[in-house]
Each structure stands twice: as C-alpha cells, then as structure tokens.
Amino acid sequence: MLATLGDSLSDILRTKFTLQDRDLPIDEMNDLTTDPLDSAAPKLDLTKLPICPNPSAIPRIDFKKGTTTLGFRFKEGICIAVDSRASQGQYIASQTVQKVLEINQFMLGTMAGGAADCQFWFRVISQECRLWELRNGTRITIAAASKILANITYGYRNRGLSMGSMLAGYDNLGAHLYYIDDQGDRIKHDVFSVGSGSVYAYGVLDSEYKWDLTAENAIDLARRSIYHATHRDAFSGGYVSVYYITKDGWTKVSRDDQTELHKRYGQEGKDR
C-alpha cells in the first residue's frame, strides 16, 4: 500500500504546476520537492508555496430578509395576520411559507426574521407548554409561555439569533399579546406589527383600529393591513393568512392570494 501511495504522489509531483505565479519546469521543481516517503529527501521549502487567503477575511454573504406580520387585541378576541413570502436578498425563496406557528389549541406564534430560528424555538415552546400541562394539570398562561421564550432568547443574545416574533393566546385571565425578539425583549401591548412591511401595515392599523371592533371588521382590517404591506414592500407577498383567537381557541379564517386581494382592495382611496 505504501508503494502504491508513493507511486501516486510521485506521479503528481512529476506534473507541471504553477508556483508563485511562474511555471517551473520539472527539473527545477524536483529541487524543491521530492517523494515525501523518502526520508533522505530534502524538505519542502514552504516559503515558496503560494499564499492562500485567510478564510476569515472573506466577506460573508448577508441575505436581507423581510416579512409582514401583525396582531391586535379587541373586545372579542385577538386577530393575527401574516404574509407568506421568504426572501434571500433579491431572491424570493418561497411564496408559501407558514408564518403562523401553532403552539397549542389556544396559543399561536408568528415568525419574523430567520425561519429556522423561529420554527425551532417555537417547537421548543410547544413542548414546554405540553410538559407544563402534564406536570400541573392545567394550561400554561400566555405570560408564562412568553417568559420562557424570552429567557431562551436572552440567553442566546448576540449569538446570531434572528427573531422578531409575537405570541398570542387566550387563558383563564383573558386574551394576551406579547412581542419577543432575539435580544430577550418581551413587551405586552394591544397592537403589534413586525417585519420590513410593518410601516405600511401600521399606516392602516393606526387609522382604523378601535377596541370595540366587531369580529368581522377586525378580520377585514387585519387582512387589509397585510395586503397593503405586500403591495408596497418588496420583501412581503404571497398569501395573506388570518387567524382569530377567542376563549374557545384559535380558528384559521382565511388564506388569500395577494393578487386576488388586489382586486378587492387595490382601488381603495383612488376614487376619492
């Protein structure tokens, strides 16, 4: 086996190769390198080998990501709405991403940032919620579930996590909506929109959101807010999904193509 290896190395060394930007003939090359299995052979002069760049100095490709997600509380429950586009810079990776993550029958999470990070850690939260039920004989509260997730992201802050998520649900204390990000921030509020298209969604929400909305009007507002974000934001698009959460659990209301919604909402404000 050693003989075979030596033969193959010798065959390689007999070939003509480029060293420090100049071609060396075989005779000159033999002065520098010989069969490595020959212990009496002169050592290879490493100073004359080509210099390879430091891999850490090569710039990393940072794909820009975008999305639009929103959630708001009103007197009859919580509405959650999201788009479905996954982007990598100018490349659209998918138009059918499920950005609402179903934790249990009464709790939902939304995905913004890195898809892998959000999906993995919400799967962990789903497991923790189930373990809580088995240990305590009762459902975990939304506040406790959001605190567990915030503690996890706080422990991994500045380590490359990319998350800007909402956690919404209904428990024995009522309806709750939290925002949790990759720095461990945890904020409770009535209205949130997260993602590159959130500025457009907020424009609609700020003008029409009211606490005493009916369920029908709230669902239409959520759907319309996401549509206008997908229309203006290049990183948002695909399908608009709307969920409605009450004390009886969550319900998936609709999943509409953005182009179909344009026929319904595209002329808003143009006839005024």
Question: What is the annotated CATH architecture of the largest domain?
Answer: 4-Layer Sandwich
**Oligomer status:** single chain
Q: Count of helical segments? A: 7
Number of domains: 2
Give the SSE string.
HEEHEEEEEEHHEEEEHHEEH
Q: What portion of the residues fall into strands of 2 or more residues?
A: 25-35%
Topology-level CATH name of the largest domain: Glutamine Phosphoribosylpyrophosphate, subunit 1, domain 1
CATH top level label of the largest domain = Alpha Beta
Termini gap = 86 Å
Spans where pLDDT lies below 50 across 5 or more residues: 15-34
The spatial strand order of the largest sheet comes to 12-3-4-13-14
| Alpha-beta content class | alpha+beta
Shape: globular
In total, the number of strands is: 14
Short description:
The chain has 272 residues and is an alpha+beta fold.
